[in-house]
Amino acid sequence: MGRTYPVHEIEQLKKGEGEVIWADGCLAILKALLESGVAYLGGYPGAPVSNLTDAFLDAEERILKPMGIFVANNVNEAAAAAMLRFSVNAPLRGAVAWKVVGTNVAADAFAHVCSSGVQGGAVIFVGEDYAASSTLVVQKTLPYGYNFGAPVLDPKADLNHVAQLTRLAFELSETCRMPVLFLVRTRVGNMKGWLKVKDNLQPKFNLHHRLPELQLEPDRFPIPPFTQKQEQEKWHQRIPFAKSFIHQNGINERYDNGGRKGIIVHGLLFNVALRALMRLGEVEVRQRDLVATHAQIANAPKDAISLLQHPVPAPQPPIRDLQSQVPDFQSPVPNTQSLSFGIPLLSLHALFPLVEDELAEFLEGKDEVLIVEEGEPALIEREIRAIAQQIGWNGQIVRSEFLPTTGELTTDIVTEGISKFLSNSNVFVSVSRPVPRVPLDERLPVVPRFPNFCTGCPERPAVLTALKIFRELCPEARFEVVLDIGCYIMGIYYLRDLVSPVTGMGTCLASSLASSFLSQERTIYIVGDGTFWAQALTTSISNALYHKQDCIVLILENFWTAMTGHQPNPSTQIGEHAGNLDIEGTLKGMGAKWVKVVNPYEVGEVVKLLEEAWQLSEIGPRFLIVRGECMLERSRRERKEREQLRVVGKRVIEAHFGVDPLICVGDHSCLHYNNCPSLSVRPSPNPLKRDMIVKAEQTCVACGLCGSVAHAAKLCPSFYRVEWVQNPSFWERLKFKLRRWLIGI
C-alpha cells in the first residue's frame, strides 16, 4: 500500500531541465506537479494513490514548503474535492488525490466545482482499480466524467508519458475551465523507471506571498438561476474547448498504416495490447534505439526492471507495412516512437470528451474495428458507435464478440481476443519464460490462506478474540457484527457467520438502523478512528444517537490510518500532522450516555465491558473505545529508539513470549482465539504426546495477548515472557551470575 519515500528519492525532486531521476509512478506525478507550478495539494489515501499522498507529506518540509506550496491531509474525499473551490476564485493551480470509490464521497462537492468552473488548473488523481486489487467493489471513474462534464485522462504505463500528461492536464483544465480527472491505475502508480524532468515552477502566489484578493463572481455561484447558464456554458463552450485542446496537443496517439482492420485501446490497455501484439508478431520494437539505455541501467537500483533484461523474441510472422520513427528520449522501456505496428491502432488517453474528427479519420477506410475497453458500462464503445453512425461509417465495430465485457483484461485474454479478431486464431502464441529451478513434479502445493492481522495488531483482540469469548460466555446473545472499512474488515474471514455486508465507508452502522428496530438481533458495530473521523461520525454515529439505536459500537483507536499506509488522521498524537482530537470527548459532547476506554490487550476487561454494555439496551448506543497504537508504526518507532539508546550505552529491554513445550497440551485453543502470525506448531519433545504443540516464532513483539487470552479463556498456562536486557546495570549482572550459580549452570 502507501509507503514512506526515502530522503534520497525526495531530494531528486529538486533536479531540473534535462536531468533524469529514478522514480515510481506517483513520484513522477509529484515531480510533474512541481513543474506545473501547483500552489496547493491534498487528498485522502487509498491504493494506488496512497503513494502519492505519502509523497506529498514526505516532501512537504524539504521541497514543498520552501516553494510555498500548501499541503493538506484531508479527513475525507469530500473535504479534498471542496478544497478545489479555491481554483474557482483564484488563478492558482491545485491537485488532490483519492481512490476510485472515494469519488462517491467527493461527488457532491465535485459536482458544484464542475458547475462553477475553475480559473486555475484543477486536477484530481483517482486511483483507478477496476480489477479490485485493493478495492472492495468494482467501479469505474469515467461515468463521473460524463455526468459532470469533467475531462478524463488515462495515461499508459510510461513515466515520461505520465509526467507529460500531468503537465497537459493543467493546461486542459484552464483551457476548458473544468477540473480534470486523471486516472492512476495500480500498475501505473507502482511502476518504476527513469524520468526525464524539467525545472520546477514556483507558484506566483504561495505560502510566502499570499494572494491579496479572491476574485468573487456571483455568476460562478452554483445556485439558480446561475446554474442553468453554467450548464449551457459547460456543454456548449467548455467541452468544445476541451476537444480542441485534446486534438491540437495530440493527447490521443494514432498508429495507422492504412490497414482494413483497426484496434482502439485506452490508457494502460495500450501496454496490454502492445504485449499481445508482440506475442502475435504484429509489432516490432526497434531495439537499436534502446541500446543507449544500458549505461543508465547499470546505475539503476537493484529492483530496477527493464525490458532489455528480457529480450523480445523475433516476431513471427513478418510484419506488414511497418513504419519507423525516431525516439526523442532514450528510455529503458520502449516508448511509442520506438514501435512499428502491423495493424492500425488508436490509443485513447482522453476518455472524455472523445474527439469526433480523430475517430472519423481513424475509422475512414476500415471495414472492422475492435474496441478494447475494460468493464461496464462500456461508455467508450457506445460513444464511438454513435459517432460512427453520425458520420455514416459503414464498417463494423466489435467488442463482446472477441473480449469479455466484465472483469480484468489480462494480456492472455487480450492476446486471444486480438488473435481471433485478426482471423489468426491458429497461430501458436507463446512467450519465452525462464526455466524453473524446481521441476514441476517436485513443487509443494500452495496453501490458500486468508489475509490476517499483523503480529501484535491491537485490533485482533477486539475484533476476533474478545467477540469469540463473549459469544461463548453469552450463548443466548443474538447479534450481528457490522464491520466498516479498515484493517478490521479482515474479521469477515473469521466471523463469517456473524458479519453483515459492507455498505461503504462510514455508513455501515446506519445500514443496520432498520434491523435494530425490526429484528431480534442486536448490532455490534466495529469502526476505526480513521473511518470514524472520515465519515462515520456524521453518518453512522450521529444517526444512531438521534434514533437511540440499540447497538454496541467498538471504536478501534490506533492513532493512524493504517490500512492505506499509516497516514496521520485527527487522532494521531505524534508528528507534524498530529490532530490530537479526542474521540471520547466528542462522543460525550454529542450526548452519548455510556462511553468507556479499554486496553485491547486486556481481553478479560474487554469481554467484561461487552457484557456490561449488552445489559444496557435502553440507553441507546454504547461506545467502547479500544485504544492501542498500531503495532507496525509503534514497532518502527521503538526499534529506532532502542537502537539509539543501545549505541550510547543506555539500558535497553526487549521482550518476547514463548511456549513451554513441557506444559503445552497441544489442543491449539490459543490458535483458535488468537490467530497470531507469530504462533505456529511443531512436534512435541515428549514422545507420549502425539499432537503438535504450539511454538512462538521470533517475530513475536510481546504484545501480551497470548497470556491475556490464556487467562480470559481459561487455557493452559504454557506461555511465558522473557526479557532480553542490553547494557544491563551492575546489579542486574550480579543477579544474573548469582542465578546461574544457584541452578548450577
For the largest beta sheet, what order do the strands appear in spatially? 3-2-4-5-7-6-14
Q: Return the average pLDDT rounded to an integer.
A: 86
Q: Which percent bin holds the helix content?
A: 25-40%
Give the DSSP E fraction (strand runs of 2 or more residues): 15-25%
Sheet bearing the most strands, described?
A: 7 strands, mixed
Shape: globular
Q: How many strands appear in the DSSP assignment?
A: 25
Low-confidence stretches: 288-334, 425-433
Instruction: Give the helix tally.
Output: 25
Radius of gyration: 30 Å
Q: What structural category do the secondary elements indicate?
A: alpha/beta
What distance separates the N and C termini? 49 Å
Structure notes:
This protein starts with 6 loop residues before the first helix and ends with a helix. The strands form 7 sheets. Strands 3-2-4-5-7-6-14 form a 7-stranded mixed beta sheet, with helices on both faces. It has a 5-stranded mixed beta sheet with strand order 9-13-10-15-16, with helices on both faces. It has a 5-stranded parallel beta sheet with strand order 17-18-19-21-20, with helices on both faces. Helix 9 crosses helix 11. Helix 18 links the parallel strand 17 and strand 18. It has 745 residues and is of the alpha/beta class. It is globular and about 95 Å long.
Briefly characterize the structure.
The chain has 745 residues and is an alpha/beta fold.
Helix-strand layout with pairing:
Blueprint: H1 7-11, E1 20-24, H2 25-35, E2 38-43, H3 50-58, H4 60-64, E3 70-71, H5 77-83, H6 86-89, E4 93-99, H7 102-116, E5 122-127, H8 142-148, E6 152-153, H9 159-176, E7 180-183, H10 186-190, E8 192-196, H11 226-248, E9 253-255, E10 261-266, H12 269-279, E11 283-285, H13 294-298, E12 339-341, E13 345-348, E14 350-352, H14 356-363, E15 368-371, H15 379-390, E16 396-398, H16 411-421, H17 459-473, E17 479-483, H18 513-518, E18 522-528, H19 529-547, E19 551-557, H20 583-589, E20 595-598, H21 603-615, E21 622-627, H22 631-647, E22 652-659, H23 669-674, E23 679-682, E24 693-696, H24 705-712, E25 719-726, H25 730-742
